[in-house]
Amino acid sequence: MTETVSNSAGTRKKGAGLTIERIFSTEGVHPYDEITWERRDVVQTNWKTGETVFEQRGVEFPDFWSANASTIVTTKYFRGAVGTDAREQSLRELIDRVVKTYRQGGEDHDYFATEADAELFERELTWLLVHQYFSFNSPVWFNVGTQSPQQVSACFILSVDDSMDSILNWYKEEGFIFKGGSGAGLNLSRIRSSKELLSSGGTASGPVSFMRGADASAGTIKSGGATRRAAKMVVLDVDHPDIVEFVETKAREEDKIRALRDAGFDMDLGGADITSVQYQNANNSVRVSDEFMRAVEEGGEFALRGRKHGEVIEMVDARELFHKISKAAWECADPGLQYDDTINDWHTNPETGRITASNPCSEYMSLDNSSCNLASLNLLKFLKDDDTFDAQRFADAVRIIITAMDISICFADFPTEAIGQTTVDYRQLGIGYANLGALLMAMGLGYDSDGGRAMAAAITSLMTGTSYARSAELAGVVGPYNGYARNSDAHQRVMRKHQAANDSLRTMHANDMSVHKLATQAWADVIKTGATNGFRNAQASVLAPTGTIGFMMDCDTTGIEPDFSLVKFKKLVGGGSMQIVNQTIPRALKKLGYDEEKIEAIVDYIAEHGHVIDAPGLKTEHYEIFDTAMGARSLKPMGHVRMMAAAQPFLSGAISKTVNLPETATVEEIEEVYLQSWKLGLKATAIYRDNCKVGQPLADGGGKAKKDAADKAAADEAETTKVVEKIVYAPTRKRLPKSRVSRTTSFTVGGAEGYMISGAHEDGQLGEVFLKLGKQGSTLAGVMDAFSIAVSVGLQYGVPLETYVSKFSNLRFEPAGLTDDPDVRMSQSIMDYVFRRLALDYLPFEQRSAMGIYSAEERQRYLETGSYEATSEETGSAAELLAPAPQVEVVEGGRAASAASDVETSAASEAGAKPAPKEAHTSAELLEKITGTAVDSPLCMTCGTKMRPAGSCYVCEGCGSTSGCS
User: Fold this and answer.
1) Nearest alpha-carbon partner for 238 in 247, 251, 229
2) pLDDT at 901
3) With 90 as the cut, is the pLDDT of residue 564 above it?
4) Buried-most residue among 90, 230, 498, 791 (CB within 10 A)?
5) 943 in active site
6) pTM, entire model
7) Known catalytic residue: 363?
8) Least confident interval from 252-266, 411-425, 726-740, 818-832
9) Whole-number Å distance between alpha carbons of 427 and 408
10) What are the boundaries of each domain within the chain?
11) pLDDT at residue 883 above 70?
12) Catalytic residue at 359?
């Protein structure tokens, strides 16, 4: 990586310099002196192997930073060899290393009017960072102020032409970018298809064949020398003759994964044998045009065209091709769609070239051979005590951050000369935010509601409007970006489009009205100042996944995402962990007018069940406020799409987000998501259907099966006889004895009466169930008889009862409501009641408590003692599960703290807090324990815990590792 270009042309002196206003810091007091610091030990363990993967003791952090945030910053961002004097030991060192470099860059390039303004800029930036109001993207923390090249960008877009030199150069450039800890995307549509001829007369290989080499390279190079694999995006235009091969590439590989898994190979993500599968290191997207989407709507034909001369190679049925795209996404989550005409309609630099591709997570879209540095604000920090959003303070923060981001381009290094030149000439920035889901919940606004969308749109408009207004001010001081002159008309046209979108925004309440009013003023400033000065930056904003930096800021939610779940796993500073209810919930309930007694009851219910359905005293019209990405009340797919559509008109780039669909979703539902995303003006859409990928390590069957096969082969070789034996593994039915103990339960659910007869084996294990509903001979009675037989046969063939309970409890349909059973007072359906009752009758306390199923006596015991207190007849492990957290000793600020640390004490006092199950190490694993259902996410390759979705990739809240984005 080399510093490839001089930046002086992009920072010529024009005005008198910026005058910085004091907003956040206190005059005469350094930001570090306003807060309490403490020493902590950071020890990171792989929960899967028990191996200690990192250890650094005595690191220094503010006392209000969580254990999780300090662990992630220490392991990811502190520089220097561990155990040496060169190693950073304090957050102060890290922030000073970065902020002082930014200040020096600003002074060197004449950004500030006086030295006092430079000093105040440093103080304001430091205050915002140490108080977790925002964070730069990961490359800044990795590189700025070190001896390494000063790479500040996380996002790169490359280009490749139809020549072998260009293709090999693509491999090389990607390798350097991956080595530096970043990701890249590019469009392969210039490469001739396999249906076209070469100049020599032979047939071209086509872009898909060249993807193999790039995929192997990405799988070999670990990003930044870490365990995270490289991130990349591959785009192909929908009119490319090889589009069907491209679309189906990863789906066919998924078929291969299934076949190899069934043969006993370890095909989990990170498994020993997964490397034999191709195309797994890139996100694939199809770039679709308005012409194609209209042909899909109308049922017309669409032309696939040659790359050299644009001649028609083949005519295809547009709907059939669209169905193939959606079917492949149904099978393996790839490809996503990028909407080409929408993207280029909002392009500020069309005279320079079209936007053809994006970065790996799809939020940065700009010119070929360009880069973007990112920063994200923590929205929850701007929520005032009266639960209103502090729009003015938010805008003030944006101005400081945009200034810093632009300064970084002055001293940054770039992986290639072409990228360096384009970035200096166009100075693309990507300011964004995190914690939107938590903010809306705390304000009492549903994520999938008109009020929630209006609030999100107003905030996004204010952020981008303020950013461009600041960019215009910077242009008056240090000049507009070098490419502005040739693109000035187009740039100003896009600014007017943003302003028009802001003018058409319909506010819903006083709070978003005040934000919108400030945004309207910001856009007026953009138009006025931009007409005089031009703009310093070709782009200003995106919505990135904010994976690792989201945890650095202690955000509950990443990027534009809703809350993951209502119950969270929280690590404690001195060791141990707690299960707590999301702290925005009590605040939201208070905002909605609930009294303390009702809030406590609702929070306790959420702590037990993981959702709000049937929570005591909670009005059903308030359920939507507490909808989450996962769990019993997970958001509908179009809820995700509509939120993205609300924010998109106010962003320079796009949005990194995946639309989650249940496993039962159909190909037609995916088609509808893609079609509506186009109609609603999104620039890109990615989907993920639960359990569509094999490589989600929810069990260790693949590795174990492979080991068993190896052991058997060794044993066979030792035999002197050469007998070939075929072993077939099949389930064996354990039939019930002729005479068995049975239990008859009469029940009423929502006024509907029924009877359940359950029979058990001699060991007390459930072996059969019969349900009687409706009149004999009726359709309902017949269906229930068939269902009973199916469940009974499954039980006798070894299907665990807890599997049925996890599948059928919380199933919702009529009749539902009150029951006459004191242990199950409310039921969402007859199936919900039946399997909760069976769990209470036949499952041990340890198993059903993990699924949140308790008897009336146990719930009463909890209200009286604060513990469900397993009896002597219940398992000892269940009692252990709910035992108090162990007492620890921790060093804080140089003093010994006996018993539980102060942080542990405060955590235990939080609403809905109790010791976390020993089996849970992240919120994803905790959600699984509470609900009894699997979270479809990969395991972290660093610490072995289950990751959670963040934008279009995954992030580990245990160590901060990501599956591909910074």
Assistant:
1) 247
2) 37
3) no
4) 230
5) no
6) 0.77
7) yes
8) 726-740
9) 10
10) 8-146+372-547, 155-345, 566-627+899-933, 742-881
11) no
12) yes
